[in-house]
Every structure is written in C-alpha cells, then in structure tokens.
Amino acid sequence: MILKMILTLTFIFLSSGVYAEPKNTYKVQVVFTSQCPCVQRMMKHIKSLVEENHNQGFVFEFYDVGSKDQKTSDAYARLQKFPTSITNDHDLKIAKKLGAEISPTAFVWDEKGKLQYKGAIIIENFEDSAQSKKPLEEALQSLKKGQPVKNALTTPEGCFIVSDIQ
C-alpha cells in the first residue's frame, strides 16, 4: 500500500511539470588555481552559480591547475564546501587544450560542442562593488531563456596560469 502511494505521488510529481528535463544541456568548464586570490574572492559567487544552475541544464566541471595532485584538490573542495568535484590539472593538459591562460576562466559549450561563452566569471570594480559585472551568470541566464549570449567573449581577471615551472 505504501509503495503504491509513493509510486503514485512520484508519477503525479513527474507528470505535473514541476520536474522537467531541460531542453538543452550545456557543459560549463572552469579552469582555476586554488592559490589565486581572485578565485578566493569569487568563491561564494562560483558556488552559488553551481547550486542555482546544476538542475537547469548545466553540467559543471572544475579543473584546479594550482594543486600538486588530486588529493590536494579534493582537500580544497572539502575546505571550501564545494558543491561538486574538482579535477586536478597540475600537468595543464586540460588548461592548454581549452586555451586557459588566466585563473579563473570559464567555458560554456552546448550539446553540439559549440563554444557559447569564454571568459570571466566576475569583472570586479574595486571602487564600487555594486558596479561589478557577472558575465558568466549573464551567459547562463541567456542560455536558460534560449537566447544567444550577448557578450560571448570576455577577458578573464585573475592570476596567470604558469605553464613552465622549473
């Protein structure tokens, strides 16, 4: 009897439209170094973007180029109470493939593999934080509405990704 009620309620919930599969799926890749002060300042915003959008047709992947190994990246994710996993990219294979030179840099791809956005997560205005821009958030909002991204290429602000450490 209880199982029948659970199945009935589940069917009603799924058929009500409250839960619906997104029309499109986008991959959001963020390359960053955990040692970058800019990343630390943006962390609250980054986490809220993941939490607000992960069930809205966006799959998030994070690549840490600043930690020495996966264990260190995992520890950083736990310390930050990060809502998703972080993959270590100390050898910069993914960063180089994507063309990331600044930490953090975000990339948004559609389901066909076409780049929809590349650039900054936040463009900070240090004199007036209310004037700071959030181009990644704006890109995700446009894509959710089925609209093209107005500023599909922005200049990331942050720390240089060093590729030739001796």
Helix content: 25-40%
Q: Report the sheet-strand fraction.
A: 15-25%
| Class derived from helix and strand content | alpha/beta
Residue runs with pLDDT of under 50 for 5 or more positions? 3-22
Count of discrete alpha- or pi-helical segments spanning 4 or more residues: 5
List keywords for this structure.
five-stranded mixed sheet; Glutaredoxin; 166 residues; alpha/beta; 7 strands; disordered N terminus; globular; two-stranded antiparallel ribbon; 19% strand
Structural summary, described in words:
The chain has 166 residues and is α/β, with parallel strands linked by helices. It has a single domain, classed as Glutaredoxin. It is built from five helices and seven strands. The strands form two sheets. A five-stranded mixed sheet has the order 3-2-1-5-6. The chain has a two-stranded antiparallel ribbon with strand order 4-7. The protein is globular, with a radius of gyration of 18 Å. The N and C termini lie far apart (67 Å). The N terminus is likely disordered.
